[in-house]
């Protein structure tokens, strides 16, 4: 049988997500996807991160999907017990220790792979050692990226042209005649990020292939061809992985425990009209100063639109004094916007995938983390892009310049990580302007929304029977089985 699903012996896959919600959530969903197609998957993680996968596991027969826990080396990296994910960091020092601890997982995972040998390891390409987990010729590694293929291709193009950039240090525009799009950056990529990206490309290059949490139509055929030509092999678009969850209830239990109940959230959303609410969230590891939050509050209030705004836990503490609160929230903001139910502030982890899939959400102000983007697109929601760090500035270009499904807020300072204090503040005027552009239902807003909804339909089709991602998954399973069986012959 050609497409693998009917072939007798299931694939035995070990999946290794990096320790950050933006990496664990999509790979958990991809694990459930393989398991739901009859393959045997083991997700390898650490004790405090197990809850990220509980819900994926609960919905699938344990024969097909299970967890294997390896201890996080808390003592070795001098971290308190339980601090094992980038979303539980309190600053750059803790973040560095978590990354160090994650890298030290190499040895216990290698030992596990030795004892319990899979056919393939599917591992996050953020780990530089995924291709050294085994020296057994019958076990190969497939890299998983939490980025789009557009971004990976762009990074590769920038790498190829690096000497040109080094000579033009103030370079802000990027045109590579081989890259399918002409891209201009108003921000400079941090040097350490470039080094990280190049290590990641190296890891991808050494693996057997690349799994992408996106659908081919969004990356675009020209970009996929560019990737295959420059990197020399195929990438498999299997997403959007979030669409494996169908109901509000299933979507509400992704990642950390939500600080609001599904009921409270839905009853607020249900009371609003279609496309009338702006949703604002900057992911799980980006931190804004109180000054910046103040500008956001002022900008959304001045725009006059209804909103759901996810703010960090520290800004919403029960015991927060009035003096502390007024540093990030204009005086009387809650009386004017929250008590009358015009706005809803979620202080801590929000059920994002559920909120985005509600029809009242008309636009999403996002930091351009890849999962947030793909979740918005899956729901057909246009975006106000506000990249903060990492690869988010590349993602922004796919959304605004290439696909025309969002507008830029005007963020121009590219940080290495989400804790880096910004020198520039995006003003309330820029925020209000961007919100109006997408929410005022004028000609530009209508066209952007039309395009976003069209991509939403394509995303849904991609994961259905006969859709591009579904076909890729079946082909991949079949290819991997044949390749395994040939090696074992
Ligand atoms: N997320 C969520 N609730 C929150 C914050 C984040 O559900 O309050 C989820 C979001 O839906 C996405 C992931 O966490 O799946 C964040 O990944 P993304 O790539 O967007 O950004 P990162 O956090 O990695 O910067």
From TrEMBL:
<dbReference type="Pfam" id="PF00201">
    <property type="entry name" value="UDPGT"/>
</dbReference>
<keyword id="KW-0328">Glycosyltransferase</keyword>
<protein>
    <recommendedName>
        <fullName>Glycosyltransferase</fullName>
        <ecNumber>2.4.1.-</ecNumber>
    </recommendedName>
</protein>
<dbReference type="InterPro" id="IPR002213">
    <property type="entry name" value="UDP_glucos_trans"/>
</dbReference>
<dbReference type="InterPro" id="IPR035595">
    <property type="entry name" value="UDP_glycos_trans_CS"/>
</dbReference>
<keyword id="KW-0808">Transferase</keyword>
<comment type="similarity">
    <text>Belongs to the UDP-glycosyltransferase family.</text>
</comment>
<dbReference type="GO" id="GO:0035251">
    <property type="term" value="F:UDP-glucosyltransferase activity"/>
</dbReference>
């Amino acid at each position: 049988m050609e497409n693998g699903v009917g072939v007798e012996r299931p694939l035995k896959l070990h999946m290794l997500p990096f320790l950050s919600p933006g990496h664990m959530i999509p790979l958990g969903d991809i694990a459930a996807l393989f398991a739901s197609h009859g393959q045997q998957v083991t997700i390898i993680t650490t004790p405090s991160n197990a809850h990220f996968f509980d819900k994926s596991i609960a919905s699938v027969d344990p024969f097909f999907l299970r967890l294997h826990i390896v201890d996080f080396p808390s003592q070795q990296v001098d971290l308190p017990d339980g601090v094992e994910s980038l979303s539980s960091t309190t600053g750059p020092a803790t973040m560095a220790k978590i990354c160090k601890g994650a890298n030290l997982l190499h040895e216990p995972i290698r030992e596990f792979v030795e004892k319990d040998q899979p056919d393939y390891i599917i591992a996050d390409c953020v780990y530089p050692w995924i291709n050294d987990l085994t020296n057994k010729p019958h076990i190969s590694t497939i890299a998983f990226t939490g980025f789009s293929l557009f971004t990976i291709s762009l990074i590769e193009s920038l790498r190829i042209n690096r000497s040109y950039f080094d000579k033009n240090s103030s370079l802000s525009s990027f045109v590579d005649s081989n890259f399918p799009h002409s891209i201009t950056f108003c921000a400079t990529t941090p040097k350490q990020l470039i080094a990280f990206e190049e290590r990641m490309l190296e890891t991808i290059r050494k693996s057997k292939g690349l799994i992408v949490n996106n659908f081919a139509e969004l990356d675009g055929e020209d970009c996929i061809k560019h990737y295959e030509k420059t990197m020399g092999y195929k990438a498999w678009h299997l997403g959007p992985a979030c669409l494996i969850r169908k109901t509000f209830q299933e979507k509400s239990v992704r990642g950390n425990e939500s600080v609001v109940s599904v009921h409270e959230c839905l009853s607020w959303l249900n009371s609003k009209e279609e496309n009338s609410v702006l949703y604002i969230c900057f992911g799980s590891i980006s931190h804004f100063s109180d000054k910046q939050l103040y500008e956001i509050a002022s900008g959304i209030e001045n725009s006059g639109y209804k909103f759901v705004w996810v703010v960090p836990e520290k800004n919403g503490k029960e015991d927060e004094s009035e003096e502390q609160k007024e540093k990030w929230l204009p005086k009387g903001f809650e009386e004017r916007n929250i008590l009358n139910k015009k706005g809803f502030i979620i202080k801590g982890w929000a059920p994002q995938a559920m909120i985005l899939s509600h029809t009242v959400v008309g636009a999403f102000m996002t930091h351009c983390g890849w999962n947030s983007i793909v979740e918005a697109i899956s729901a057909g929601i246009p975006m106000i892009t506000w990249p903060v760090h990492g690869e988010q500035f590349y993602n922004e270009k796919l959304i605004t310049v290439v696909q025309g499904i969002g507008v830029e807020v005007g963020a121009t300072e590219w940080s290495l990580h989400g804790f880096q204090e910004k020198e520039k503040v995006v003003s309330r005027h820029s925020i209000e302007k961007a919100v109006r552009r997408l929410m005022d239902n004028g000609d530009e807003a209508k066209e952007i929304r039309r395009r976003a909804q069209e991509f939403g339909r394509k995303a849904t089709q991609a994961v259905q029977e006969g859709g591009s991602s579904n076909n890729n998954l079946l082909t991949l399973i079949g290819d991997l089985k044949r390749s395994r069986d040939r090696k074992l012959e």
